[in-house]
Amino acid sequence: MTFAVKIKKWHAVASWTWNAGDDVCGICRMPFDGCPPDGKYPGDDSPVVWGICTHAFHLQCINRWLQSQAEQKCPFCRRQWEFKQAAIGGEDSDA
Length: 95
Ligand SMILES: [Zn+2]
Ligand SMILES: [Zn+2]
What we know:
Blueprint: H1 9-16, H2 20-23, E1 48-51, E2 56-58, H3 59-68, E3 83-85
Antiparallel strand pairs: 1-2, 1-3
Residues 51, 53, 55, 74, 76-77, 79 line the site of one zinc ion.
């Protein structure tokens, strides 16, 4: 009989970090309540946006990602990227 070691520790660790994936940007890995690498101020300058795939990123991070890609795909799951919920107040139309 071999040692059947069930890894129970994993569960404890997982419960601690259960929402880590939701709290950090999948692109820059910075917390959503912090600054992205090229952001100046937390919050105001780095709105968080969600895709229809439920992955979230800083607006400027996903924008830069999309601009660098030929196709608009989520950097996490490679599904078609569409904004689900934008933190920006409507589209920039002529004022
Ligand atoms: Zn980011
Ligand atoms: Zn995704």
